Amino acid sequence: MGREVMAAIDITKGRPWGGKIERDSDGNSQEPWILGYKDEDKPFFQWAVIKIVGHDVPLILDAVPVKRGRKRADIVDDLLDGATNIVPNIDLVMMDREFANDGVKEACEDHGVAYLNPVIVRSSSEYERHIARLANSEKDFDVVAQQRLDDGPTRKAIYLPKREWERKDQNDDGTDVTVRQELLDEFSEVVDATPLSEDRDGDSPLNDLLGDVHDKEVIDEPERAEAPVVPFETNYELVDVDPATETEMKHQIGRMMAKYRRRWGIENGFKKLKTFLAETKSKDHRYRYFNFAFACVLYNCWRLVDILVQLDLDGEVGHEPSVSANSFLTLAKKSYGLDPPD
């Protein structure tokens, strides 16, 4: 914890809400804390989380409830405000495409944190035009400085071919993963639940991300482009917009993608976090948030206890936990009692 660490920000959902939804005369949901995507039958309570990822202690630093209509930039600002008070040396925060907007960039820069995220390529956007220029020059790697009106850190667009996403790397749990498959898995929760495969191009969910919207709300969005090159955005100071050679440019892009693959640690954390989440039928968003925050505390305690056990037994910390989450919960219940209050 004394060195620079990487973190990830993402939004997770609780168990589906099966209760009654209050709607207006037009059928729109009037529930500010119970959110759903277009054409989705069961909505959810949702929470945004910032978590340390990579090879460092995988702790959840903060979590906030997500309310309908709240901007992603405000969520990121809130999370970074809490996280940087705990770990002041966050070097890089990684997010998915739903956080790709100027407000999020400004929130990261206000807290002195670099960001890295992919962006959606829309038709007639600067990204699509630059991808066309790359195709005309028979290039598929590039780093371009983005224009900004103030004197803040240089913002850069990183371009790499889709085939680079298909190079295998390993998750924190030792399983193989590709960046492309990560995004396919994420977006499968956001688009229609059609079986996804990496062979689908025409209606790929990589270019069909839907935002957080009202039930039955009609969305008018710019047409998205199916591009052979994938753009990312970053203000990371070690990314050079004018490297000495093309080989060095490819190497630095590769290093950034290796970092981004570590973002998957937050998804693995969400899967384990559900082990600690108490079941409830309550509609009170405050009680729901308390339950989720308490689950985050238990998750952190489990990871810290496991690290102490590994150090005592092996003298080092490996990727796989030595203490299972279920074993930790069983021992905690016996020793301290975790029965909920009346």
Give the ordered list of helices and strands.
EEEEHEHEHEEEEHEHHHH
Looking at CATH, which topology of the largest domain would you report?
Answer: Transposase Inhibitor Protein From Tn5, Chain A, domain 1
Characterize the main sheet.
Answer: 9 strands, mixed
Number of domains: 2
Oligomer: single chain
Mean pLDDT: 79
User: Mind telling me the CATH class of the largest domain?
Assistant: Alpha Beta
- Rg over CA atoms, rounded to whole Å, is 21 Å
N/C terminus separation? 38 Å
Which geometry do the CA atoms define?
Answer: globular
What percentage of the residues does DSSP assign to strands (E)? 15-25%
GO molecular function: DNA binding; transposase activity
Protein name: Putative transposase
InterPro entries: Transposase_11 (IPR002559)
Domain Transposase IS4-like: 49-281
